[in-house]
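Fig. S4 source data, part A: sequence.
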Amino acid sequence: MPYPEITHHGAHQGVTGSCHQVELPAGRSLLVDCGLFQGREGAGRSNAIDFSIEGIAALVVTHVHLDHVGRIPWLLAAGFEGPIICSEPSARLLPLMLEDAFKLMLSRDQATLQRYLALVENRIVALPYDQWFSLPQDLLCKLRLQRAGHVLGAAYVELDIEQPDLPRSTRVVFSGDLGSGRSALLRPPVPPQRADVLVLESTYGDRLHAASGDRTARLQRLIEQALQDQGTILIPSFSLGRTQELLADIETILCDKALNEGGQGAPGVVDWPQLPVILDSPLASRITQAYRDLQPWWNEEAQARAEARKSSLTFPQLITIDSHEQHQRTVNYLASTLRPAIVIAGNGMCSGGRIVNYFKAMLRHPRHNVLFSGYQAKGTPGAVIQAAEGAEGFIGIDLDGERYDMRAGVATLEGYSAHADQAGLMAFVAGIDALPGEVRLVHGEPMAKAALARALRGAHAGLRVVTDH
């Protein structure tokens, strides 16, 4: 069967910059995601659109992480005039993410920002999950969004493309980023019934997540161990997804403590009702409010807990910090008083953001602890700090070009990855009723793609797996 031509404008030779163009029969095309190149992959690269946008009828967004949507300003500047199609939750979250990115990368001028956001919001077409949407008739294509379980609003995309010379349509599926199935808030992804061509992410194609167990119980144990030091727990986190998962688990712990133990912690540990939980990220605060408003898209268990007031991402101890002045006062207060607290702040890789100011002021003191909720990319300050877990004495950490002594404790909590591992990706493929004619691996380092390709070929004799695009 001749398959539609797919051109990859990003995330085909690495992890970031997701952007894929699929040709339609009438000489038109669709763009699936338009993301930034980040980290080492973005070094020295321009964000300008370096491909022709002629004939691109629409942009379909799988989810709103910047490595999937961050080039939208440049796409609009290049003259793209089509709709931006996404799920209903993503329609609420996308302007928040793009506003923050616009202010950081392009302009803080309020009038310019408002014109840009108005343009984005006018282009958004929000679709419900699990319903086919017919594109204009001349495109010979319809599409459907299905839950991907990665972050709220994440979707994988099914394109049903009519082939004039063939007896049936061709089904092209773009996975976007698939969730691990461990979320406290989201439903796990369910594989599509059919895929002639599957464009599949491979971020964790060469690894397996540690056994899940009870993630919340492990978080509670780590918090209580850290609080025995009578200091602050510093948690670097990403604004979208990871922060809300952590808040949901912390809220569950607090509710269970109040019900079962009258709020008392272990001997020598601060009473849980007196423990402030500080969310120090304006973007994370706005996204958390959006998550609350989007409760109908949570999984059934999370909705039941919210209705029972056991978890709704808001609780008396939660303190949100907005302005820079509030942030600096909080840093100074915790550093000077050594009061026990939990601080969640960005950025997640510790390469910038408000968490760095906490580190500068507090890493030197052994009463404090850093708690990582997942992987830290090589070369980042977070990776250096994470590697010090279990070390004795102190080590030197470079932050913003200055050297700081670190005596704080370090621990890593597994179970918060938002990506499917190799087993999850394999299960997604195996769950399709009939194996795809072709699987294209994207969104992964070369070793991860190669490992996943070997595993897929080993499990499914004759399956065509493409890693080089």
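Fig. S4 source data, part B ends here. Residues 242-261 form the longest helix (20 residues).
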